[in-house]
From TrEMBL:
Residues 232-277 are annotated as: Disordered. It holds the Pfam family Anthrone_oxy. PANTHER family: GNAT FAMILY, PUTATIVE (AFU_ORTHOLOGUE AFUA_3G00765)-RELATED-RELATED, N-ACETYLTRANSFERASE DOMAIN-CONTAINING PROTEIN. InterPro entries: Acyl_CoA_acyltransferase (IPR016181), Anthrone_oxy (IPR013901), GNAT_dom (IPR000182), N-acetyltransferase (IPR051531). It comes from the Eukaryota. Residues 35-195 form the N-acetyltransferase domain. Residues 257-268 have a biased composition (Polar residues). SUPFAM superfamilies: Acyl-CoA N-acyltransferases (Nat). It comes from Tolypocladium paradoxum. This is N-acetyltransferase domain-containing protein. One of its GO terms (molecular function) is acyltransferase activity, transferring groups other than amino-acyl groups.
Length: 419
C-alpha cells in the first residue's frame, strides 16, 4: 500500500558517503553478474544510447517524459557520460554477458541528489523488460557501490530517509531511488532488491510544469553495517583535509564506530597522538600528490570534484584535529601534575591546532578563488583555475607539515616522559 503524500522535512546528519573522486573511467573495473556486464561508457555506445532514448515506453518514466528529438539531442547528454565529465558519475552501460549487446544504462547519476543522498536510476530497452535484468542490475550495482571506499560527512537530507545507530546517533548511509507513484514496475524491482518505500510527496511535473506529479522515494540503507561493519570503510577523507585512522574500535549492530580503549579509563592516551598526527600528515599530503593530480586530470569536472573534496574535509578535519590537540593537552596536564616536562606536549597541541587558522587565514584567498571558479563552471584547463589549483596543492602540503612537526615534538616529549 502506498503512503499518503506528506511535506518534505530536512535534517543534517553525520554519516558516510563514497569517497570522491570515484575510480576514473579509464581504469574503472567492470561489474559482472550471472547474465550481465556493467561497463564504462564508450564513444561507440552513442547509437545504442540514442536507440534506448527513442523508446516512448522507456522515456515516459523520465523527467523528460518523451523520446529525444534527434541524434544531436542525445549526443549532448551522452558526452556527459564520457571522460572526463563522466569520471564524476558512477554510471555504467548494461550489456548482456553472452553477446555484449547493450540493453540499457544505469547507476548513480547524482552524487548528492535533491534529498541529500546519492540517487540510483536505470533504463532498459523495452524488449528486455520482464526478464529479471533490472533486478539483476540493481543487485550487482549495489554490491559494487557498497564496496567503494567511504568518507565521513555531514549532509542535509530528508528526514524520512534517516536511520540512526542506537549508540552514538550516526546515521546509516543511504542510497535513494525516486519514481513516479504510478511506476509500480520499478517499485516492484526495487522492493525485490530490499529497498523500502519511505516517502510519497507531490511536486511540479518536470514533463509538464503546469501539472503536479506524485513521486515516491524508495531507500536502501547500508546493510553491510549490520554484518560486516568494517568492510571498505576508510577513515581518510579526500575533501580539503583527510581524517586519521580511528583508535581501535568495536562496532554496534548498525556499524557505528565505538571507541574501545585497552585501559578501563576513558582518558586520552598520549602514546596514540604521535601516530595520529603522522596519519594526518600522510593523509593531507596525499591530497597534494595523488588526489589533486587526479582531479586536474578531469578538467571538465575539476571544480565540482575539488569543491566536494574540500567540503567533506572542512566538515570533519577540525573535529579530528581538536581531538588530537585535546589528547596532547591532557598529556601536558598529566605530565605536569607528576612534575615532568610537559612543554613538548603543549607545543605539539599548538602545532595540530594551528592547521585551522592556517586554513582560514593563509589558504582563504586561494580557497575563495577555487570556490568561485567552481560555481562559475570554470574548467580545469583555464590558466587561472590551473594556477589556483597548483597554489592550493603547495599550501595544502605546507599545512600537512604542521601535524608532522607536532608528531616529532610529541614523540620527543613522550620519550622524555618515559625516561
Amino acid at each position: 500500500m502506498m503512503l499518503a503524500p506528506s511535506p518534505l522535512e530536512w535534517v543534517t546528519v553525520k554519516t558516510t558517503l563514497p569517497a570522491v573522486p570515484y575510480p576514473l573511467l579509464a581504469s574503472r573495473p567492470d561489474i559482472r553478474t550471472e547474465r550481465l556486464v556493467l561497463r564504462r561508457t564508450l564513444e561507440s555506445d552513442l547509437e545504442g544510447w540514442h536507440a534506448l532514448r527513442l523508446q516512448p515506453e522507456v522515456m515516459k518514466w523520465t523527467s523528460q517524459g518523451r523520446p529525444d528529438k534527434d541524434l544531436e539531442w542525445s549526443r549532448e547528454r551522452f558526452v556527459k557520460r564520457l571522460a572526463p565529465a563522466g569520471d564524476a558519475r558512477y554510471e555504467f552501460i548494461i550489456c548482456l554477458a553472452e553477446t555484449g549487446e547493450m540493453i540499457g544504462t544505469g547507476g548513480c547519476y547524482v552524487v548528492t541528489g535533491q534529498f541529500g543522498w546519492p540517487v540510483i536510476g536505470y533504463m532498459l530497452r523495452r524488449e528486455f523488460w520482464g526478464k529479471g535484468y533490472a533486478t539483476e542490475f540493481v543487485n550487482g550495482f549495489l554490491e559494487a557501490w557498497w564496496a567503494l571506499p567511504r568518507a565521513d560527512v555531514d549532509v542535509k537530507v530528508e528526514r524520512s530517509t534517516v536511520e540512526r545507530a542506537a549508540e552514538d546517533g550516526l546515521a546509516r548511509e543511504c542510497i535513494v531511488a525516486v519514481t513516479l507513484d504510478s511506476n509500480r514496475a520499478s517499485q516492484n524491482v526495487l522492493a525485490k532488491c530490499k529497498l523500502q518505500l519511505v516517502k510519497v510527496w507531490a511536486a511540479a511535473d518536470l514533463r509538464d510544469p503546469t501539472q503536479t506529479a506524485v513521486l515516491a522515494r524508495i531507500c536502501l540503507w547500508d546493510a553491510r553495517s549490520i554484518s560486516q561493519p568494517h568492510l571498505n570503510r576508510t577513515r581518510w577523507t579526500p575533501r580539503g583535509f583527510h581524517s586519521p585512522p580511528s583508535p581501535p574500535a568495536s562496532s554496534d549492530r548498525h556499524g557505528s564506530q565505538v571507541a574501545t580503549p585497552s585501559d578501563p579509563s576513558t582518558k586520552p592516551s598520549s602514546r596514540e597522538t604521535p601516530d595520529s598526527q603522522l596519519s594526518i600528515t600522510g593523509a593531507i599530503t596525499t591530497i597534494s600528490f595523488i588526489s589533486l593530480p587526479a582531479i586536474k586530470a578531469v578538467p571538465e569536472a575539476s571544480g565540482q570534484v575539488w569543491t566536494e573534496m574540500y567540503a567533506r574535509g572542512a566538515s570533519s578535519m577540525p573535529k579530528i584535529g581538536a581531538a588530537v590537540a585535546v589528547s596532547y593537552l591532557y598529556a601536558a596536564y598529566d605530565t605536569h601534575s607528576r612534575g615532568g616536562r610537559w612543554e613538548g606536549f603543549a607545543v605539539a597541541a599548538a602545532c595540530v591546532a594551528s592547521m585551522v587558522p592556517f586554513t582560514l587565514i593563509v589558504m582563504k584567498g586561494t580557497n575563495d578563488k577555487l570556490h568561485k571558479a567552481a560555481k562559475d563552471g570554470v574548467k580545469g584547463t583555464d590558466p587561472h583555475m590551473a594556477s589556483a589549483m597548483n597554489t592550493w596543492g603547495v599550501l595544502n602540503f605546507t599545512r600537512g607539515l604542521l601535524p608532522f612537526a607536532g608528531a616529532i615534538l610529541g614523540a620527543r616529549a613522550l620519550l622524555a616522559d618515559a625516561l
